[in-house]
Amino acid sequence: MDSVRSDRGGSRGHIPVALKILIAGGFGAGKTTMVGSVSEIRPLQTEEVLTGAEGADDTRGLDKRTTTVTMDFGRITITEDLQLYLFGTPGQDRFWFLWDELSQGALGAVVIADTRRLPDCFPSIDYFEQRGTPFVVGVNCFDNARRFSAGAVGGALDLDPDVPVVLFDAREPQAARNVLIELVEYVARRQLTAAGRR
User: Fold this and answer.
1) Domains of the chain: total
2) CA distance between the termini of the chain
3) Which terminal residue of the chain, N or C, has fewer Cβ atoms less than 10 Å from its own Cβ?
C-alpha cells in the first residue's frame, strides 16, 4: 500500500493521505501492544499460543504466552489530512519471510527496543538500514526495568546520530502516537534534506 492522495472534490468527500508504517522489533518488545493501544479501529491481531517446542522461542525475562504469527494491523488518524496504517511485524526469525511483503510501500518503521533484551532489536535495525528505510527507535519502558537515556540507547545500538530515539510506554495511546509523529517528521526532514542536495 503506497501513500495515496485523492482529490477533495470526489463524491465521497475528503479522503486523507494514507501512509503505511511498520512496527518492528524483537520478540516480546511490545509491537502488538503498541498497535493495539494507538489504533482507532479494532486492531487485527494474529496471536497464537507459543509452541512450547524446545528452543523455538526465548522467553527468558518475559511473561509471554502468545506470539504474532503473521502481522498486527491498526489505523490512526494524525490530522484530518493524514492517516497512518500500522503493520506490526512478527518478531521471531522463523517468520521473517513475511517482512519483505509487509514492507512493500512503507513510508518508514518504528523499531521497538526493550532494554532488558536490547540485542533483540539489532536484526530489525539491520533490515531497515540495508534497505534504506527510514526508522525511529521507540524504547518501550517496561515497569521494573532499568531506565536509560535516549542517547545511551542510541549509542548502545550504534545508530546514526540523526536517527531519533524516543522513550515511551507502548500501553499509552498518546505516547505511542508521539512516536509515530516523530517518525513522520523524521521522514519529512530526510526528504527536505535530500531535495536540498539536488
Assistant:
1) 1
2) 27
3) C
